[in-house]
Amino acid sequence: MQDTPLTIGRLVAHGTTFHGTSTVSTWTGEGFRTATYAELGRRAARLANALRSLGIDGDQRVATFMWNNQEHLEAYLAVPGMGAVLHTLNIRLFPEQVTYVANHAEDRIVICDGSLVGLLARVLDTFETVEHVLVVGDDDWSELEGKGAQLHRYEALLDAADDAFEWVNDIDENDAAAMCYTSGTTGNPKGVAYSHRSMTLHSMAGAMGDAMGLKPTDSVLTIVPQFHAMAWGLPYAAMMVGASLVMPDRHLQPEPLLEMMLEARPTFAGAVPTIWQGLLPLLDEREADISFLSEVIVGGSACPESLMRAFEERHGVRLIHAWGMTETSPLGSVARPPVGTGDPWSFRITQGRFMAAVEPRLVGEDGSELPLDGESVGELEVRGPWIAAAYYADDDPEKFHDGWLRTGDVGRITAGGYLTLTDRSKDVIKSGGEWISSVDLENALMAHPAVAEAAVVGIPDEKWGERPLASVVVRDGEDVSVEDLRDFLADRIPKWQLPDSWAFIDEVPKTSVGKFDKKVLRQRYAEEELEVVRAG
Ligand code: AMP
Fold it and tell me: Which of 460, 466, 472, 407 is nearest to 434 (CA)?
């Protein structure tokens, strides 16, 4: 067989020519601005030429500080396509973390959304290697002036550049094409470098029928941020199969999201459970018909069964649960039920079946490998062609050993390859020597009609070592007592696992990518900021 390197350049050429009539549509808040993939290809070529003229060469890093939109997609194509490395900066990190990652990655150029000029201005003069900032849009950029970087209007640069570029394919497919830093809540973020090979294989596998199952006729709404784990591979997979893309830009609240969906009628979407949780009451209230949205890939944190059922039974939308990490590109497993089995829900609610080429193993507390029997619980480790082998320019021997990535996730795997996560290893609650799954408790609590959100953490207990504390957000206009909730749980959870400490809170604190931030809850408890009710 021919030894053809798998490159993003080839993916770009394919998508923008052979799928040239497919489109990317960006929501402006009032309507869509739309470009065909052919136009996108020409604009990406202009961007690549502009970046070259600013000195970008070899594997230099070009950062984006952007919402999900057409211009961000242009960077997705142009930067790896020209052989450079795309670094998607997370706009929601704390300023000192943004500084850390931009300096650690040695970014040379930042492409910044006009609406984020103010945010970038807070950190730009701490960026040690950034020479140029390209501002998308004609927003006032005076706040960025005098901060050490040369400023350019993105459109002006594109206008002045040639619209043909020979995508770079004559490279080692293992070279870095993009990088993303983990949104980890402890220590400095860690960089993961995705290679041309890993991204090509991940896009192919992600598009397959047992994963996201994308088709040229699909219209894919990418809500998961493009700065989070390359938007779960949706943009590249869509370009590969010719599915059209719908981008929400900064309009991520339930009302504008719904308005945008009703206008664009996407057939497929991807977002964390929090987004769907926020949208559900609005859909119920408006009795909006979004059944055009046939499937949604949902992951990043555990998706409660009650949420999946509500979408499917009340709105005709199928939520497909998936598991992954920044370090796994991110798709690792997708919960589509096997053929010829009884109750599909028993598989749908798992974190899914491992994708071909992603190998899992479970490791016990003593380091021994555990059987994949659906019962043994241990830490999940994975390996495969789109799993990180190390962090970029960082040492973390804890995380990688003998060719495996230690995920920090705890759970069980069936002989058929379905993963069920019970916890993050740092969130595990150990009570009297037995593990209590915070995820099981949260899912059971969020099935209560009066509960909008629930997060469970372990708190120190003299007798048992640790006991669960449930923090509950009650839906607007509802009223529910601890006794009601304990009674509700009693049918679903063994009695000894029921939380004996409860707090009613306004909102569960979230990380920069919308996951429950349990570290903050534990801290609030330790600092006695939570009003705790004891029961049981
Ligand atoms: P990140 O790298 O920020 O995407 O975080 C990855 C982590 O998110 C994983 O290690 C899991 O702990 C968590 N995660 C991702 N998908 C799921 C899921 N479907 N269910 C539960 N946790 C998940």
Answer: 466
Q: Which atom of ligand 1 is nearest to the CA of 352?
A: 19
453: left (phi over 0), alpha (psi -120 to 50) or beta: beta
Give CA–CA dist 447/451, Å, rounded: 7
Atom of ligand 1 minimally distant from the CA of 424: 12
Residue 32 carries which side chain, given as an amino acid letter? F
CB-ligand 1 contact for 308 (6 Å cutoff): no
Ligand 1 within 6 A of 299 CB? Answer: yes
Residues 369-413: tens digit of each pLDDT: 999 999 999 999 999 999 999 999 998 888 999 999 999 999 999
DSSP 56: -
Cα 260-263-266 angle, rounded to 5 deg: 80
Among 61, 99, 95, 73, smallest CA distance to 11 is for 73
Residue 518 Cβ contacting ligand 1 at under 6 Å: no
Give the torsion sign (CA, 434, 435, 438, 444).
negative
Q: Residue 322 CA: which ligand 1 atom is closest?
A: 19
Q: Residue 512 CB: number of other CB atoms within 10 A?
A: 18
Cis peptide bond prior to 330, omega within 30° of 0 = yes
CA distance 429 to 424: 10
- Across the chain, mean pLDDT equals 95
- Alpha-carbon span 132 to 129, nearest angstrom: 9
Q: Which residues contact 463 (CB under 8 A, 6 or more apart)?
A: 432
430-472: pLDDT as tens digits: 888 888 999 999 999 999 999 999 999 999 998 889 999 999 9
Q: Is 399 in the pocket of ligand 1 (CB under 6 A)?
A: no
Quick check: helix, strand or coil at residue 306?
Answer: helix
Token pair in block for residue 157: 């640069």
Q: Phi first, then psi: give them for residue 263, nearest 5 degrees.
A: -80, -45
Residue 298's identity, in one-letter code, is: V
List of residues 6+ apart from 141 with CB closer than 8 A: 114, 117, 135, 151
Cα of 408 from ligand 1 centre, angstroms: 10
Q: Write the Ramachandran bin of 58: left for phi over 0, alpha for psi from -120 to 50, otherwise beta.
A: left
